[in-house]
Please model this.
Amino acid sequence: MDRPAVLSRRLLRIIDKTLPDHFNNMQSLARENGRPSQLIRYWLPTVVGVLSSTTVLRILINRQDEIINWITNLGGTIRDFWFNWVVQPTTKIIRTIRHDSTSDIAIMSRDSLKADRESLERMVVDFAKDKPHFAYEGNSSITDIQLAEIRNKVAEGDVTPVLRAYEQDLRSPFV
Model:
């Protein structure tokens, strides 16, 4: 007979019959015998604890000052960690966000934001003066009224002349 066929039949019998039977037998054994009592489970740790308790107490009493010093140092370390790595960085972040004058850094002050907006306004207006056909299609020049209108739009966030030029450059980038 063919050896692989025999081997495969044996494996199938083990998987289909032997393993489930073994599992059921182990469960019935566990039900019959049950878990050992607490006395049997914990007698050894209890005896070791009772016999070594005097030695442990003697060590604790002899090294009482060192233990108190260790606990004090541990408390100081935990306190320092909490303040140096949690509280202090959090307060610095809050000061930075609130633009506190004692903060080391600031994300952006209100004055710098105002200066940036004014600079953007000047750049867009200068661009509109230089290239009026992007500000108003078909115009070769731009009036003061139109420049004032562009300033107002830039203050609201509308930079249409620059975006029109950008769109034009995207259509034909190498011209």
User: Anything to note?
Assistant: The chain has three domains: 1-34, 37-107, 110-171. The chain has a mean pLDDT of 88. The chain is about 80% helix and 0% strand. Helices lie at 3-33, 38-62, 64-98, 110-130, 132-135, 144-155, 160-171.
